Predict the structure.
Amino acid sequence: MAEGCIFCRIVAGEIPAVRVAESERALAFRDLHPQAPVHVLVIPRRHVASLAEATDGEELGAVLLLAQEVARREGIAESGYRVVTNTGADGGQTVHHLHLHVLGGRALQWPPG
Ligand code: DGP
């Protein structure tokens, strides 16, 4: 657990979050500020600051597979969805614990801003 990390505190149950799915290595919960009808964050339980710092392929695979599971559970697997990981300053990352945004439930614009 990284000191001061909001998402580590969610993993530890110290900050409430609406959990939608979990696995041994990953956790999914609803985004506090949803940008689409479905907006779920999927994170590794272990602290990894961003995709740029990730080294464990099995852990990354577990996070991606949980994102796939979230899409099924949220009923957007057939209609389609987007998985995004903002990385670093230009990527717009504001929480420095690796997370995938799973967005869906409406037609999404492309390209992003
Ligand atoms: P990013 O900008 O990619 O680092 O996205 C961070 C996201 O995290 C943003 O969409 C809002 C969300 N968020 C920030 N703090 C909390 C929190 O305490 N709980 C939940 N559920 N989401 C949070």
About this structure: The longest strand covers residues 38-44. The first helix runs from residue 6 to 11. The helical segments are 6-11, 57-73, 88-91.
